[in-house]
């Protein structure tokens, strides 16, 4: 099983306002441009570099607000031959899509700031609760804004013996606050 190819086929996952991308690194000494998407560390674990992108949308124009990149553990050595890897990756992508779509919904729920003739104000995520944004929404938006790529990567879920389908992995990722549930459950 070619884990790197499966991972490459799974990413990016995105909404209008948030994305997680797998970043390829150039292979030094290759005659053609070759990108490596995972590397093995000394203990046999697989690592990859991921990038989060946070966009803001102002009157239909999308612009990048923040980019973060981080190398993270994507697969423990003991799971490298796990036959559930395709289901895990599909479930992970589905869980991320739920989160990122929810982020877009939350951003869209924020009332637009009025335009000032002397200053162009963009529709930005609140850093502190605005009077018109409920505290729970503000906390979740701030959680997304403060997140690093590693906050969205949870290879430990392959340690769950009962999870075998994409839906099982999606549920396991979204229902635990130790995993992606913190972005849904608050």
Order of helices and strands: HEEEEEEEHHHH
Round the mean pLDDT to the nearest integer and report it.
86
Discrete helix count: 5
User: What's the quaternary structure here?
Assistant: single chain
Radius of gyration, Cα only, in angstroms?
Answer: 18 Å
Please report which band the strand proportion falls in: under 5%, 5-15%, 15-25%, 25-35%, 35-45% or over 45%.
15-25%
Low-confidence runs: 117-123
Largest sheet: 5 strands, antiparallel
Descriptive account of the structure:
- The protein has 186 residues and is an alpha+beta fold.
- It is built from 5 helices and 7 strands.
- The protein has helices at 3-10, 85-108, 135-146, 166-174, 182-185; strands at residues 13-14, 18-23, 25-26, 35-36, 39-40, 46-58, 61-75.
- Strands 1, 2, 5, 6 and 7 form a 5-stranded antiparallel beta sheet that branches. Strands 3-4 form a two-stranded antiparallel ribbon.
- A hairpin with a 5-residue loop joins β5 (39-40) and β6 (46-58).
- The longest helix has 24 residues, at 85-108.
- The two termini are 36 Å apart.
- Mean pLDDT is 86; it is low at 117-123.
Question: What is the fold's blueprint, element by element?
Answer:
Layout: H1 3-10, E1 13-14, E2 18-23, E3 25-26, E4 35-36, E5 39-40, E6 46-58, E7 61-75, H2 85-108, H3 135-146, H4 166-174, H5 182-185
Antiparallel strand pairs: 1-2, 2-6, 3-4, 5-6, 6-7
Helix pairs in contact: 1-2, 2-4
């Amino acid at each position: 099983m070619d884990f790197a190819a499966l991972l490459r086929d799974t990413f990016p996952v995105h909404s209008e306002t948030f994305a997680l991308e797998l970043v390829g690194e150039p292979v030094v000494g290759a005659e053609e441009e070759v990108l490596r998407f995972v590397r093995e560390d000394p203990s046999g674990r697989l690592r990859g570099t991921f990038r989060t992108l946070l966009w803001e949308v102002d009157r239909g124009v999308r612009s990048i607000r923040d980019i973060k990149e981080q190398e993270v553990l994507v697969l423990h050595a003991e799971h490298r031959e796990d036959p559930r890897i395709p289901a895990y990756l599909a479930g992970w992508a589905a869980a991320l899509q739920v989160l990122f779509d929810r982020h877009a919904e939350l951003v869209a729920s924020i009332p637009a700031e009025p335009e000032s003739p002397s200053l162009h104000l963009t529709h930005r995520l609140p850093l502190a609760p605005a009077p018109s944004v409920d505290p729970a929404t503000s906390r979740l938006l701030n959680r997304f804004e403060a997140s690093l790529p590693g906050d969205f990567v949870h290879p430990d879920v392959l340690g769950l013996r009962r999870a075998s389908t994409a839906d099982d992995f999606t549920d396991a990722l979204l229902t635990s606050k130790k995993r992606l549930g913190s972005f849904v459950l608050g």
